[in-house]
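To illustrate the input format used throughout this study, we show a single complete record. The first block contains the structure-token representation of the backbone; no residue identities are included at this stage. The design step must infer an amino acid for every position from geometry alone.
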């Protein structure tokens, strides 16, 4: 019997929103159960937009129900959220959004709730304007962001906070990075366009290609040959800031899944060590290196405790893509807004400080350290770098500008949507010879 896509999505979304499951894992697990690519595409859209808009429509469902279903019937609660997502975000026909959702209630084994699901969705249609106005009255439900994050954005970026949250809720373009060791950018564009993909060159990132919508990249020409990798343009800035040349010894700390490490290797003939704490994530680095036909030393170890893995020879370049709140990539990872807690940030700060302090002595005099986060919170970014600069007399910040984003107190901040990029922070620090 063919699985019901909406029922699968409802159970998966309940796992993500109510049980803390990874959206990526839920997508991969459930997509394998659907043979028809159209069903898989609908599943991905329901799960992605369901996670993105959960904090808006979860509250709406609560307001429409006399008795909450969240704990008693989590999948039916999630199905109601998806019904509203289909009507308001995916803008499916009434039949698809209501009748098919009601039918999915039966597939979930809750036929006695089919009438309730139908009544709730029909009531939403009748009272839509007043219900939307109620949701729009608060930043949390207007933008589907947790209250603590909406407040943090308003504090750190008072002029841009609404634009940031709006950008988090738009589908990002698909961005690729050409592997210049295997192909030229224009040659890859021609190859993709010839296969029907609307690929174009990014206006200022020399290795970046842009496609308007996500697709299954594994089916694209050149993927198996290692001609390209998927990587947002903001992340591609790292290779420019590293100021590479052949022969340098480079450390990419916190390297998984290996996108930035591979980009560095594509740019220059360097001796690169890719360090990763988690063995399973380190395997993803090896897989990416293999597909792209690149070579690096992959080391499993703690970036904050170099004694366990460092051999004593300084590095000319150190890249620290520090563990962070991931608040800059909510448009690509919508489940982060459901899983991240305000209480997590202090632990992130401690980890960032520990890693920076531990790795600074490993940098050779005259060398360059690039500190990166995919956070938009100043406390994880310029505040951490400012502490290092104050503590280390041989540390000097290097000023730079980018075509997107804005100068931070130290370094540069790209906010989500700036140049249609993900949110990313960069600081470049040089070690002076004293």
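Output of the design step:
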């Amino acid at each position: 019997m063919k699985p019901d896509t909406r029922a699968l999505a409802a159970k998966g979304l309940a796992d993500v929103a109510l049980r803390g499951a990874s959206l990526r894992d839920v997508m991969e697990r459930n997509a394998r159960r659907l043979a028809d690519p159209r069903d898989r595409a609908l599943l991905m859209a329901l799960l992605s937009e369901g996670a993105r808009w959960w904090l808006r429509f979860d509250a709406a469902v609560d307001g429409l129900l006399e008795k909450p279903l969240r704990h008693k019937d989590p999948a039916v609660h999630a199905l109601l959220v998806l019904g509203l997502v289909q009507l308001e975000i995916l803008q499916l026909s009434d039949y698809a959004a209501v009748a098919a959702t009601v039918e999915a209630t039966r597939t979930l084994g809750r036929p006695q709730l089919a009438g309730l699901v139908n009544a709730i969705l029909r009531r939403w249609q009748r009272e839509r304007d007043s219900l939307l106005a109620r949701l729009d009255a608060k930043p949390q439900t207007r933008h589907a962001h947790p209250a603590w994050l909406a407040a943090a954005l308003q504090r750190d970026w008072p002029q841009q906070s609404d634009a940031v949250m709006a950008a988090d809720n738009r589908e990002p373009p698909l961005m690729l990075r050409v592997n210049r060791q295997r192909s030229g950018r224009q040659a890859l564009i021609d190859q993709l366009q010839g296969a029907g993909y609307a690929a174009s060159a990014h206006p200022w990132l020399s290795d970046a290609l842009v496609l308007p919508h996500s697709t299954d990249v594994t089916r694209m020409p050149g993927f198996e040959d290692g001609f390209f990798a998927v990587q947002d343009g903001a992340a591609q800035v790292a290779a420019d800031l590293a100021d590479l040349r052949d022969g340098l010894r480079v450390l990419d700390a916190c390297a998984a899944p290996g996108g930035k490490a591979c980009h560095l290797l594509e740019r220059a003939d360097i001796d690169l060590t890719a360090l990763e704490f988690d063995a399973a994530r380190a395997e993803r680095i090896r897989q990416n290196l293999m597909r792209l036909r690149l070579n690096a030393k992959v080391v499993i170890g703690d970036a904050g405790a170099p004694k366990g893995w460092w051999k004593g020879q300084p590095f000319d370049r150190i890249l620290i893509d520090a563990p962070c709140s991931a608040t800059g990539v909510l448009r690509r990872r919508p489940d982060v807004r459901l899983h991240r807690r305000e209480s997590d940030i202090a632990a992130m700060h401690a980890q960032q400080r520990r890693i920076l302090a531990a790795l600074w002595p490993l940098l050779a005099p005259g060398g360059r350290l690039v500190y990166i986060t995919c956070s938009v919170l100043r406390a994880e970014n310029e505040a951490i770098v400012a502490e290092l600069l104050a503590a280390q007399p041989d540390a000097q910040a290097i000023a730079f500008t980018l075509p997107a984003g804005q100068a931070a107190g130290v370094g540069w901040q790209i906010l989500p949507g700036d140049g249609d990029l993900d949110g990313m922070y960069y600081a470049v620090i040089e070690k002076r010879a004293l």
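Structural context for interpreting the output: The chain has three domains: 5-137, 174-230, 233-431. The radius of gyration is 23 Å.
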